Each structure stands twice: as structure tokens, then as C-alpha cells.
Amino acid sequence: MSECCVHPEKTEEIKGQLPDSCQLFDLAELFKMFGDSTRIKIISVLTHRELCVGDIAAALDMGQSAISHQLRLLRQSGLVRCKRQGKTMLYALADSHVQDIYRIGWEHITESEGDGNA
Amino acid sequence: MSECCVHPEKTEEIKGQLPDSCQLFDLAELFKMFGDSTRIKIISVLTHRELCVGDIAAALDMGQSAISHQLRLLRQSGLVRCKRQGKTMLYALADSHVQDIYRIGWEHITESEGDGNA
DNA sequence: CCAACATATGAATATATGTTCATATGTTGA
DNA sequence: TCAACATATGAACATATATTCATATGTTGG
């Protein structure tokens, strides 16, 4: 067993700095929405324009149902909003934060190597 | 059935704008690392300082093994780096992008409401 | 080299999650 | 109101993932 290196004082200080557990949970839930190939593709196409469900499904070569399910999750997480237009539903990114997160993630993977600071 | 609203020309244009499928996969994998409560907690404590495995486990009230497994995933994704210091392993965030992504996500959830642009 | 410690890792288990299928809901035009 | 369309949704299934347990690896001091 052994309690590992555990430095009690340091540990307590860290605990004090750790944000509220619920907020960290929400934060994880937020990133989880970006953490699926289908959803990130949806977000990607929505960065260019608003689209209806059928066009998203066609562009991604996926079933309407799968897209709809994922759009529901994105909606519930507040990442996309939708408005009805006749028989179709137009989806769009909810706010600029979504684009910001997408963009910074994109920058990270395209730079693709450690920047060797430190 | 029905092919939904599918506008063929629009769909083709969207497909053309869609980034490489592999890159989107990598992007999803990146965000997936942030999309788990345990890992986001680890990232959170590492934003303040570098820490050894045991202290992270103690601060998070979790088993050493669970933390070690998650640290391995974070390492493999290039989000944290580690260096040995005697018997312990010191972990730190790999680069500033990790902090950036964390911070922007944090801003999003703390503002917690749509900014109503558009 | 050996004992004690710190971390890593493989296997097993439980749970979460994504897609599909079938069908329900809601909208439009005749 | 009815038929055709676009989307939403529940259930079922397959897969992915997180944690635990046991144990292996690697380091230090005697």
C-alpha cells in the first residue's frame, strides 16, 4: 500500500485551491461535448453557417437519427441553438465561446509538437 | 425514410470545407482528455504547480492507481509531461495551450448564460 | 543485495455512450 | 383533414471507458 509521497500540508493547500467539484463536473461535461468525432464534425460545419439536420447528416455521411441525437446533446449543453424554418430545423452555434474553444483546440493539434518552453 | 431536406450543392460545399477526418478525430481525442471529471481535476491542480502522483491522488481523494492510469492517458495525449525526482514522479502541464483550453472552458461555464449575440 | 517506498500496468468489472431501428411529433400544401 | 416530409425520440445493442485489485517496475538508503 503506502500512502505514496503525500505531503499533508501541500495536499491541504491544493484541496483549498481546487475549484468547486460541481463546476469541475460541468467543465468536464462541456469538453465532453467536443470530445466525440461526430459532435466535433457537427461543430466544425456549424462554424461556417447554420444548417438543417438533413444537410448535416448528408455532409457527414451519417444517419439522420444519429445526428439528431447528437444535436440534442449539444442543445442540452447549450452549445448550439436551433430555430424552426418551415419543416426544417436550422441549427447554429450558440455563442462565440464555442468557436473559441474549437479554434484553440485546432491550433493545438495543428502545431502538433511541444513548444519546448521549460 | 426520406432524404430529409438535403440540398445537394450546399452539402457538397460543406463537405469541401470540412477539415481532414483524421485531424477532426485528433481534435475530438484532445477534448476527450478534458472531458472527464478526474482528468479535469488533475489538469486543474496542475495549473497551479507541478505535483507528484501521490499528492494528486490525496488532493483528489482517489486511489493512486486511478490517478496513474489517467496520467498515462494525459501523457500519451501530450497534455502533461513528467520527470523523475528520486522515487517520485513530478507531473506538470505540457504547454500553455492546455491552460488556455482549460481557462476558456472555465470562462464559458462561469458566465453560464448565453451572451445573446445574434 | 535487500527492504521500503513511489509509481506503472494488466485484467476484470461496472458503467457510460454512440448508433441503429422503429416510430412519434410536428409542419406544409392540397 | 390527409399525405408527404423533416426531425425527434425510445429501446436495444455494441463498444468504449473508468476504477479497482493485484502485482510489476524502478529508486533509495542501509
What can you see in these coordinates?
2 copies of one chain form a homodimer. Chain A is mostly helical and 118 residues long. The first copy, chain A, has a single domain (21-114), classed as Winged helix-like DNA-binding domain superfamily/Winged helix DNA-binding domain (Arc Repressor Mutant, subunit A), CATH 1.10.10. In chain A, 59% of the residues lie in helices and 12% in strands. Chain A is built from 6 helices and 3 strands. Chain A has helices at residues 8-17, 21-34, 37-46, 53-59, 64-76, 96-111; strands at 51-52, 80-85, 88-93. In chain A, strands 1-3-2 form a 3-stranded antiparallel β-sheet. In chain A, strand 2 (80-85) and strand 3 (88-93) form a beta hairpin. In chain A, helix 4 crosses helix 5. The model of chain A is unreliable at 113-118 (pLDDT under 50). Chain A binds a DNA duplex (30 and 30 nucleotides) through helix 5.
Instruction: State the helix count of chain A.
Output: 6
SSE order of chain A, as H and E?
HHHEHHEEH
Helix percent of chain A reads 55-70%
Strand content of chain A: 5-15%
Principal-axis shape of chain A: elongated
* Unreliable runs of chain A: 113-118
- Average pLDDT rating of chain A: 91
Query: Structurally, how many domains make up the residues of chain A?
Result: 1
Could you give the order of strands across the largest sheet of chain A? Answer: 1-3-2
Quickly give the structural class of chain A: mainly alpha
Radius of gyration of chain A: 19 Å
Largest sheet of chain A: 3 strands, antiparallel
Distance between the termini of chain A: 34 Å
* CATH uppermost class of chain A: Mainly Alpha
| Main interface by residue count | A-B, 68 and 68 residues
Instruction: Give the total of beta strands of chain A.
Output: 3
Q: Do you know the CATH architecture of chain A?
A: Orthogonal Bundle
What is the CATH homologous superfamily assignment of chain A?
Winged helix-like DNA-binding domain superfamily/Winged helix DNA-binding domain
Could you state the oligomeric state of the chains shown?
homodimer
